[in-house]
Amino acid sequence: MLVDYSLYLVTDSTPAILKGHNLVDVVEAALQGGVTIVQYRDKTSDTADLIKTAREIHEVTLRYQVPFLINDRVDVALAIGAEGVHVGQDDMDLATVRRLMGKNAIIGVTASSIEEARTAAKGGADYLGLGTLFATPTKENTKSIVGTAGIKEILASLSAMDEKVSTVGIGGVNASNAQRILYQSKAAFKGLDGLAVVSAIVGADDPKQAASDLRSLIGRPPAFA
Ligand code: TZP
Ligand code: MG
């Protein structure tokens, strides 16, 4: 399946980031602004609430014909018929996720090192979330801050493999650094396929505008290039 990873929205349900906005409305605004794929990431709600909110978001993403993935929870993804799942290194193993979700599902894995990235690529991940790029309050206690230099090393190593995997950078991405991250990653063969963003869109006063600004920055060669 051809998936556009260029502007990947990852949701956050914490009041500090949502600032009174309704999450489903924020996702719709972000879709209007041009996000190309959406992941529902919610570490606190109970299962019934996860399923309810995931269903609501999925109704919206289906209207915009954008793939919808669930973070961590294969059971929730299966329950609502989501297009995919994103798992971290401590979640269900990739082979089991693939068996449960089927060959057409979009499966993403977080990778913070060359070894993690290569293992997930060999294991048949469709894409890798590479990071953490920059320290971010959205995800505290991240194992490692890899920066653009670390991302470049991972991309260089992946490009030498037969297995083809898409990649998105995540962690502290915003309108001020998006073009630089993409530009610097291009020095490593094909570069990143996209950028994953949480607070720069979910926490924006105007999520549609924030998404649209990021989308045009991503599509445009940087002024400094
Ligand atoms: N994984 C690595 S960093 C991160 C996740 C889920 C959070 C990124 O959030 P933000 O607000 O875009 O920095
Ligand atoms: Mg996880």
TrEMBL record:
Cellular component terms per the entry's GO annotation: cytoplasm
Protein origin, superkingdom: Eukaryota
Family statement drawn from the similarity comment of this UniProt entry: In the N-terminal section; belongs to the thiamine-phosphate synthase family. In the C-terminal section; belongs to the Thz kinase family.
Annotated function: Condenses 4-methyl-5-(beta-hydroxyethyl)thiazole monophosphate (THZ-P) and 2-methyl-4-amino-5-hydroxymethyl pyrimidine pyrophosphate (HMP-PP) to form thiamine monophosphate (TMP).
Keywords, ordered alphabetically: ATP-binding, Kinase, Magnesium, Metal-binding, Nucleotide-binding, Thiamine biosynthesis, Transferase
Protein known as: TMP-TENI-domain-containing protein
Residue ranges of every copy of the Thiamine phosphate synthase/TenI domain listed in the record: 7-201
Included range, full protein: 1 to 225 of 517
